[in-house]
Amino acid sequence: MSSFTKKFLQLTGITIGVLLLICLIPPDGVLGAGILLLVVCAVYFFGGLITVLVNDKNEWGKVMLLSSLVIAVVGFSTCGLILSNLRINH
Question: How far is CA 49 from CA 37, 40, 53, 71, 75, in A?
Fold first, then answer.
């Protein structure tokens, strides 16, 4: 396994694991995970973009860009499915 793949799996797996653990916290865990997901995706994306623009040879920038997109797809779809079935009493 290449070092790029290892870095990608570590960064993505840890982030998604933490977000899914936050989802288990009742009653507002899903909302907190969704907000954290927005922040993490933005930080990874802009951090990766700046890193790639400054230095092409650095793998971490590419890993952060790819990881932000994967986390966004998986995280937003998971949070969307959970929120669509969530009953919030006003």
Answer: 18, 14, 6, 16, 20
pTM: 0.78
pLDDT tens digits for range 2-57: 999 999 999 999 988 888 888 788 877 777 887 888 898 999 999 999 999 998 88
Q: What's the domain range around 41? A: 37-84
Question: How large is the C-alpha radius of gyration of the chain?
Answer: 15
Q: How far apart are CA 44 and CA 68, in angstroms?
A: 6
Domain assignment present for 24 = no
Tally of domains in the chain: 1
Q: Is residue 48 part of a domain?
A: yes
Q: How confident is the model at residue 90 (pLDDT cuts 50, 70, 90)?
A: low
